[in-house]
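Following the same procedure, sequence and fold were stored together, as reproduced here:

>
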Amino acid sequence: MNRRIIYQVILGAALVYSCHAPIATKSHETLKSELYAVEKEFCDMAQSEGVQNAFVHFAADSAVVQRKGQLVKGKESIKKQYESFPRDVKLLWKPDFADVSTSGDLGYTYGKYTYTTTDSLGHTTQNEGIFHTVWKRQPDGQWRFVWD
């Protein structure tokens, strides 16, 4: 075999390998920061566009939420669940903790929330609690919740 053919084979093998080499992944801390940021976007949207719009927007198609001891399964069912949600409700939350799998496609957050309503007489009721959300990176790269 002449040297030219050997070099072409080596070059071809290198090109094929480089096309299949793993892409550098984001650091674990960067991925956790993404989840903190998406939680903030989620909460901000609930304030500006309403709780229903935020939950529908950030839900994966197969998402599940637990409300009043019942499981609400799927994005369309979640949308219906929040149709009767009062517009004057304020739902605020902030994660105290976030973590992401080593593969970078699943994560979870938890923290405190405050749910505030005002009745027709102007009396305000405030409830506080703990939330836990499981997030899954979608094929388009966006984080969407699969459990809330």
